[in-house]
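Re: the multi-chain job from yesterday

Posting the exact lines I submitted so nobody has to dig through the queue logs.
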Amino acid sequence: MLLTVLLTLSITLMYSAPLIFAAMGGVITQRAGVDNIGIEGMMAFGAFAGTTIGYFTGNPWIGLLASGLAGVLLALIHGLVSITLKGNQTISGIAINFIGLALGIFLTRQIFDGASQTNSVTKKIPKLFDVLGLDKRDSAALQSGDIDFTVILALLVVFLLWFILYKTTLGLRIRACGDHPAAADTLGVNVTHLRYACVMASGFLAGVGGGAMTLAVISNFTPTVISGQGFIALAAVIFGNWKPIGAALACLLFGFAQALTVLLSNSFLPSSILAMIPYALTLIVLVLFVGRAEPPRAVGQPYFKGQA
Amino acid sequence: MTSRWINLLRKPLTAIIISVLTGFIIGAVVLTASGYDALEAYRIMFSGIAGSPKYMAQVVVNAVPIILTGLSVAFAFRTGLFNIGAEGQFVMGALTGTMIGYYLPLPPIIHPIVIFALAFLVGGLYGALAGYLKNKFGIHEVISTIMLNWIAFYFNNYIVNLPGVKVESTLHANPILDSAKINFFSTAWRRSDAGREFIREHEILGEIVKTDLGAGIFVAIIFAFLLWFVLRHTTTGFELRAVGLNRFAAEFSGVPVKKSIFLSMFIAGGVAAVGGAILVLSTTNTVSVLSAQEGYGWDGISVSLIANGNPLAVLFSGLLFAALRYGGMLIQSKTGAPTEIINIMIGSIVLAVAVAPALPRLADYLSQRRAR
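And the result, structure tokens for all chains:
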């Protein structure tokens, strides 16, 4: 019984970590007033870059950093379209989703002799108990309950983002940009700079989310490794009412749904029905709780200087 | 710059042309940077398609499903809704087509018509579910339809895997009956003596006969005109567009907004599902266990964005897309450049479409400068 509980917990956390990174990316950009539906593509590109760099350097941490930077690269394009050129943010996000995945596979084929997936990294992100130096060999409990170190990082990011958004002047300014950019502008906040910073942070976090998938959960990049996580993360942002902690809890719920599909995989339920659970649960949860959700007021609208 | 040139920047067609060109330019940059001859690749793509009646016919065949998903997204778009769910509605339509095509024996011609009607109904209800969730619970259709896409995906796999549905030791369901097929030239005829002789004797027509060309393209054209007519020339269409332009103003003027949203998603879902049914009835003849989303719905989004949401323009952008995709395969087989280059190009085109609102502003800026 204890082992089952520990296993459920660790699988839940394992699947949640990539979602949490991506969802925090969603929170920060939307709170600054820029929609980013391209998180899925940024995750895919980040997953590719992280795995490739991790494979060639043999260092998963450098890989994870590369994941984030790859996400930033796409985020810069999104920022250029959404902030500077004041284009349509939703359409730009759709484009980023196309480009991120396609570029990832294109470059994978270039680098790995035409294969559509990368080689496996030799070293994955270490597990928590290994980092702490615990001896797991004789303890089934330690083996079942061990988690990727990315989980710890993800939880730290949640705390950090909560702290920044609600306990610092910077956070107040970010939220002002998302609710009433003209007011923020009047008070001397540089809306353009702040929005760029938040979109880039969102790209970094989404990229790291992708890397957390391919450097910790599995060990290589494939064309289908990111299949819907970015969108689930966006649903988590809404479900969490655009708050870091709420969104993280939503991610944990979706991670738990994933864990259920793993744990029930030998049960009477057909695997296809099990695979539906996370998506169906997302809808059910949205039906039950989302009525009161209210997005940042200026999200999705470009800011023209001098507008009311 | 003369004011005529400046005004050209305000035309939707200009934005579309610039967007498509952008896609080709960025594609060329990526190809060149990866060590391929971009011009040669594009030459292979265009001359390959334009030089062969068989390829051209195949492009038309391939265009039909994405024209239908494009129409679906375009229709919803005009009514203020973003139907990312065309992918799932398409899957539901393909599944319905396969089931009715196999289990319900009917005479030819009637059989496909019944299938289209039922596929429209099933896909329509699946689309309308997203409309209902938006009306009743305020769930944004982008989020709900993405979840519904995956649910349809796994539902398809569940049905196909049922004993009696799947052909043993394969990954696909029982293929549809001959009465349900909509190809102009049946496989049986093609392989018969008369068919072989026809192909031998008619050089160009014989090549076309080898493809899956069928009634699908007519269905696509009919739907394009139908949706255009509904949007432009009926009261319902006017109300739908009013909701799309300003939901609150529409509500204030007495338009039943929630009913409109529901109806719009029903129609959009139905049209996408007919696309799925056409794919089954003309090309695949069955549905398989899916391992990844096939992307018909996602292509439909790009197709409709490039057509600026105009149902008639979707016919052309759908053909453009099918040509790009088919050309991408030619590029990969002839030059070795990965076919993903096409998705990079498509993404770049869509990105340029996102920037399109900047063009009229550029025009304003330029004319102001002239006035000074």
